[in-house]
Design a protein that fits this description.
Strand content: 35-45%
Bound molecules: zinc ion
Shape: elongated
Largest sheet: 3 strands, antiparallel
Number of helices: 0
Number of strands: 5
Distance between the termini: 47 Å
Order of helices and strands: EEEEE
CATH class: Mainly Beta
Structural class: mainly beta
Radius of gyration: 13 Å
Helix content: under 10%
CATH topology: Rubrerythrin, domain 2
CATH architecture: Single Sheet
Amino acid sequence: MSKTIECPICGGDVSLANDTIQGELIECQDCGTELEVTNLNPIKLAEAPQEEEDWGE
Ligand SMILES: [Zn+2]
């Protein structure tokens, strides 16, 4: 059985497996944002820190 939680970015549904662990990264199927599980009880998701891109300014 999996849990569904609201994506903090787009409000879409994100499915979490039952064995989800804190710190796990999950990609939102709706907006493609990488989300980090920051807390398990209650479940909280936050946008995962993006690696800095070198835009060569
Ligand atoms: Zn989303």
